[in-house]
Amino acid sequence: MKIEIKNIPEYQVAFIVKKGSYQQIPDTLSKVVGGLMAKNVEIQMPVYGLYYNSPMDVSEEELEWEVGAAFIGELERENDIQIKVVPQHEAVTTVFKGPYGEAASVYMDLIQYAAKKGYQIAGPVLESYLNDPSEVSQSEALTEIQFPVVKK
Hints:
The chain has helices at 25-38, 107-116; strands at 4-8, 11-19, 42-43, 48-51, 64-72, 82-86, 89-97, 119-121, 125-129, 142-151. The protein has a single domain (4-151), classed as Multidrug-efflux Transporter 1 Regulator Bmrr, Chain A (Alpha-Beta Barrel), CATH 3.20.80.10. It contains two helices and ten strands, in the order ββαβββββαβββ. By secondary structure, the chain is of the alpha+beta class. Helices cover 16% and strands 40% of the residues.
């Protein structure tokens, strides 16, 4: 597994913030992507999930997360779909191959790598889903995992 610190350029995203079970992720993501497609903007990168807490620390009802997709174009907030610009930043990152639900198994490796390189974690984990689970088997699913970092 290749772990690296890389520069992430600024980008804008359409997203929905949710609280509760991760079972809501597919429908919520479909709503975001469908909204972008309806507005005829260019979806720029893989869809993502951003996880603010962990099922190891809180109950399922207290899980806080967002899902979304980057895009090029002009959009306004609509219903529960929000828009934000993610500023340029550095992140410790790797690509995990396997079922999406197992990607968290490498989080500690990323945290330890960052510390060893003189960085500290500066925000929640982001998972970018690089291929479509309806087109590949779970064992072939690819997830890029990123923790934003700052130099100590």
